[in-house]
Amino acid sequence: MLSLKKYLTEGLLQFTILLSLIGVRVDVDTYLTSQLPPLREIILGPSSAYTQTQFHNLRNTLDGYGIHPKSIDLDNYFTARRLLSQVRALDRFQVPTTEVNAWLVHRDPEGSVSGSQPSSGLALESSSGLQDVTGTDNGVRESETEQGFSEDLEDLGAVAPPVSGDLTKEFPADISSLTEAVPSESEPPGLQNNLLSPLLTGTESPFDLEQQWQDLMSIMEMQAMEVNTSTSEILYSAPPGDPLSANYSLAPNTPINQNVSLHQASLGGCSQDFSLFSPEVESLPVADSSTLLPLVPSNSTNLNSTFGSTNLAGLFFPPQLNGTANDTAGPELPDPLGGLLDEAMLDEISLMDLAIEEGFNPVQASQLEEEFDSDSGLSLDSSHSPSSLSSSEGSSSSSSSSSSSSSSSASSSFSEEGAVGYSSDSETLDLEEAEGAVGYQPEYSKFCRMSYQDPSPLSCLPYLEHVGHNHTYNMAPSALDSADLPPPSTLKKGSKEKQSDFLDKQMSRDEHRARAMKIPFTNDKIINLPVEEFNELLSKYQLSEAQLSLIRDIRRRGKNKMAAQNCRKRKLDTILNLERDVEDLQRDKARLLREKVEFLRSLRQMKQKVQSLYQEVFGRLRDENGRPYSPSQYALQYTGDGSVLLIPRALADQQARRQERKPKDRRK
DNA sequence: CGGGCGTGTCATGTC
DNA sequence: TAGACATGACACGCC
User: Fold this and answer.
1) CA of A562 and C1' of B13: distance in angstroms?
2) Confidence category of residue A645, pLDDT binned at 50, 70, 90
3) Is the CB of A564 under 7 A from strand C?
4) Regarding the domain with residue range A507-577, which homologous superfamily does it belong to in the CATH classification?
5) Which GO terms describe its molecular function (predicted)?
């Protein structure tokens, strides 16, 4: 989640930088407050509404089973499973880091910059020059420039390595030389080629952009964003004489003739969703430097790792748009982000696949997306089972908590009751007489399931109330409280016998054995008395070895019976908790899926903004005559080193086709 | 009559 | 070490 948060945060901020550079105001607060709750949650942390409750731990602390080590293990296990499930769900959807690199290059108003200065590859030539060179030695340059793009981009020369002697001698190679050229009015005469003129326009206001950039930099510093300072150097463009221009100046040997700015923006780290930027840098066929109008950063960031060069034109401009020449770039520009939007659609398709794969109905997934705006939550049927479960859980918890103390309380109560029913006189009592009168059934749980915790277990058996709390079945009736027994006069002899038979049938085997062996105290005493009192009780009687053996067996079996009941109850509680965990997981899964859909939507919005940015940038490009470039003839192309090239559409389309083929080959 | 279910019991292990 | 406890396995009875 942290990585996702970082991803989103960086991406959002950097996208803001990008948009701000072209004058589009982006209010980050709106993203953080109302518009995109998931973004807000990721960046600022989960809200309490999404914070999961540790039901297991709650249960462990609130009821009596917290002390059960096995239950704790189970809970930990399933908690870990739940977290793992969420992590896995998150892993399926990676919001890409949006890394923005852009810079402005101001063209010398005097046009004093010449293009004759030797440079490696960044050739900002006039439009005519572009067109001229395009058709000449494209094939020859392709391999060379490919190699150059694959090299370390920090070495600016590598971005556009020296190709053929004439051209390199003629055109500047990299942005460093370009950026140093602007402030320097004293360029060599040979740098007059106006290489940047096709890209530059006089309409830009560098000071506004400077201010925007400073604001953005301050924001980034505050948020400790990992923004490569080189990016800022690239981004920043200062007029000559500006004190800040020392770091952001243009190369003295770069031919820049007009005070025109070009923003170079890139979205990095879009490893999955942003397939717009293919990672295939080295394979990108790039025309020779003379055919391109690249702007290469003086200090390239690790764009290769985040995204590779991609022919923006190929993605942005469908080939069928080639014929539609339009001199006024801008609103009339074709949709440059068709590929992006298609990618978004692919994402959602993959989301549907995921939904199917993980058991989600695609219809449900689509409904999730439909419910995005309302944010009314998933209409999971979470009311039936959870409530019932929780209620049962609550009851079971309470009962279990009481059961945890049932042993002691029961033993104490038994002890007290035994004190009532037991006396030294009982030794002389006729056990056979006592049988018919009492007959306490320790197995009342047969009638009232799980009621062994109940201190008055026979309360659920009205017909046995008269023997309730009487654990002295083998005591004489005279020793019993007369209030517990109906008046003898009211008892018919037949009913008495029936009752005796009934109670006799309800006696356990051990009770029968105890009676047969003439054990002088109740099984309850045998079972529930503390060991000291139990031993003391045994010492008061002269018991045979068989009797002692039976008494020990009765005690052992009785305790084991209670232990088995507790064990089964715990098992039942565990099952119920597992059911509840499953429902919790389903809710979490639905929530994550909903968030995923929301992320996709926000991603789509970002892509649309990138589209607008592209149009904006392209629309501001002007040739040396101040005319805009036709989107049908030129396109912007991204390279792996973060530079943006203005290339002829034919070349862009060719590269786009080549890029399309590669993924297909890889799939094979 | 067979299967599910609840329960009791035994054996075993743990504390 | 004895006792208490937990639990799997089995048997038994009931439905």
Assistant:
1) 18
2) confident
3) yes
4) Transcription factor, Skn-1-like, DNA-binding domain (1.10.880.10)
5) DNA-binding transcription factor activity, RNA polymerase II-specific; lipid binding; RNA polymerase II cis-regulatory region sequence-specific DNA binding
